[in-house]
Amino acid sequence: MDVALLTIGDELLSGDTANSNATWLADRLTDRGATVARVLVIPDDRSLIARKVAEYSDAFDAVIVTGGLGGTPDDRTMDAVADAFDRSLAVDERAREAVERRVAALRESYQDIAIDVDAEASVPEGSRALLNEPGLAPGCLIENVYVLPGIPEEMKAMYESVAEAFGGDVRSRMFYTETPEADLIPDLTATEERFDVSVGCYPDRSAGHNRLKLVGESDDELDAAAEWLRARVETIPEPDS
């Protein structure tokens, strides 16, 4: 399953906010055997979001969009996703009930809070609203596009509600070595030539080791490749995180 991640927000491009959502999602999707084929950061530009959502929906098995949900002027994602599928926004009754409950809870602390409930509860026509249990604005599922909030706590909770939709056959094996990267090249190249796997080498100079990762779709092939490479490379135990 090839998945593309679209992370939305001017604050990501300016460096004001770290793109932790993409890293977290990529890790979870990879654990489920899916392949994260693209990660793209784009600004709060309605026409650009719509264009990329439509493009990626056609190109990949699934698309996860995060960020830009809510009622502030820079929250343009839901409108853009509706544009991508030539839909209008419509109030979802389940989402409306959830938003009303959340607003009622907020008014216990902020009595004068003004929220347009119908606007918050609107999703593209024909989509399935994804309720935002820890937050306010719902996400949605429209065709193969999952629209999630940008606030990490809310994004994680909503992803977990649809996590079973993602999967695949990609597996990996990982180990560590203090052998310099340049000295590893012949053995890493030979591993890819002998086995149906891909090999990645990820140096961590501050820790003084290299992380080696074998990726493939066959457990038997991965185990054989790992055994073959381990016999040629001096490995160390996995460092404490």
Which key features would you list for this structure?
single chain, 241 residues, six-stranded mixed beta sheet, four-stranded antiparallel beta sheet
Summarize the helices and strands and which ones pair or pack.
Blueprint (H helix, E strand, L loop, with lengths): L1 E7 L1 H5 L5 H12 L3 E8 L3 H14 L2 E5 L10 H8 L4 E3 L1 H14 L10 H4 L1 E3 L3 E3 L8 E4 L2 E4 L3 H11 L8 E7 L3 H14 L3 E7 L4 E8 L2 H12 L4 E2 L5
Parallel strand pairs: 1-2, 1-3, 3-8
Antiparallel strand pairs: 4-5, 6-7, 7-8, 9-11, 9-12, 10-11
Q: Supply the number of helical segments.
A: 9
In percent terms, what proportion of residues is strand? 25-35%
Percentage of residues assigned to helices: 25-40%
| Protein structure class | alpha/beta
The arrangement of helices and strands along the chain is EHHEHEHEHHEEEEHEHEEHE
The low-confidence runs, each spanning 5 or more residues with pLDDT under 50, are: none
Q: Give the overall average pLDDT.
A: 93
